[in-house]
Amino acid sequence: MRAIEITQPGPADVLKLCERPMPVVKAGELLIKVHAAGINRPDVFQRQGSYAPPPGASDLPGLEVAGEVVDGDLAGSPFKKGDLVCALVQGGGYAEYCVAPVPQCLPVPKGWSVLEAASLPENYFTVWSNVFDRARLSAGETLLVQGGTSGIGVTAIQLAAAMGHRVFATAGSDDKARACEALGAERGINYKTEDFAAVAKALTSERGVDVILDMVGGDYLPREISCLADDGRIGLIALLGGAKSTIDLGQVLRRRLSISGSTLRPRPVAFKAAIAAQLRQRVWPMLEAGRIKPVIYRTFPLEQAGQAHALMEASTHVGKIMLQVV
């Protein structure tokens, strides 16, 4: 099969088209003929050599796919050969065939193309786990999303807004801030020209926001603490701004604040299966009803994966960058 491999750690041009053996299907897995795969920031980190795949995972990049079930452990599975599914995987998505654990597979939502469905798993599993499970965003609460025009950000804005929450989001330009608002954010905040903490406080009558989804870390953390409401929660999912921070622990104590971090990729299948079940029950109906729309910025053919990575690193996109495999 054709696949994209990382020939050595480095810039985007180390991604090369190659021929690889078909993946071996194990018990509890499906073999998917991949139609499309999503590009995600962890793929970039893996290519750069700073995010190794978990033990036993494919060395090929790619954490989400959609396509046709062609083989696998179908006994007792809700799927059959020929079904169109999207799936969260630990690696191997940049290829013509990929294996996925059955519980991490979901049907392509009615009304969505296979390409659009491939944009769902990594972002929706991540947002649901961190915003709704870990940070417990609840009825009547507000959400601040850092990086609102990323794939994660677009997902968090749309999902929280569809569930009735007030959402604010940061972005790196006025145009991107307006794009956040078009997606459902009450206010997009240009972090280059505005103090997001001050704006968040003003928008909540100085109360502060209840939950912050943070993919920056670094010096954002003390500013986030300053604009959290009492009992507020920060869900940390990446460290684009660095792994070191100095924070006022007195505020954490006095105001009962919580800071939670997590990475999804190494978690066991059972953990991801529980998230998939919640998505199928609570989110897929919203997708199929059109309350949440796919946001795909650009699609590249498989052999142009390097160009897709270069675009992601330029950070000019709004929404998902995708690979079309067939």
Verbal overview:
The protein is built from ten helices and 15 strands. The protein has 326 residues and is an alpha/beta fold. 31% of the residues lie in helices and 27% in strands. α3 (121-134) crosses α9 (269-288).
Please specify the SSE layout and strand pairing.
Elements: E1 2-6, E2 15-19, E3 29-39, H1 41-48, E4 64-72, E5 84-88, E6 97-101, E7 105-107, H2 114-118, H3 121-134, E8 142-145, H4 151-162, E9 166-171, H5 174-183, E10 187-190, H6 196-203, E11 209-214, H7 220-226, E12 228-236, H8 249-254, E13 258-261, H9 269-288, E14 296-301, H10 305-314, E15 320-324
Parallel strand pairs: 8-9, 8-11, 9-10, 11-12, 12-13, 14-15
Antiparallel strand pairs: 1-2, 3-4, 3-6, 3-15, 4-5, 5-7
On the 0 to 100 scale, the average pLDDT is 97
Alpha-beta classification: alpha/beta
Please indicate the percent range of residues in DSSP E strands (runs of 2 or more). Answer: 25-35%
* Poorly predicted tracts of residues: none
Assembly annotation: single chain
**Spatial extent as radius of gyration:** 19 Å
Q: Please provide the ordered H/E string of secondary-structure elements.
A: EEEHEEEEHHEHEHEHEHEHEHEHE
Shape: globular
H/I helix tally: 10
Helix proportion: 25-40%
Number of strands: 15
How far apart lie the N and C ends?
12 Å
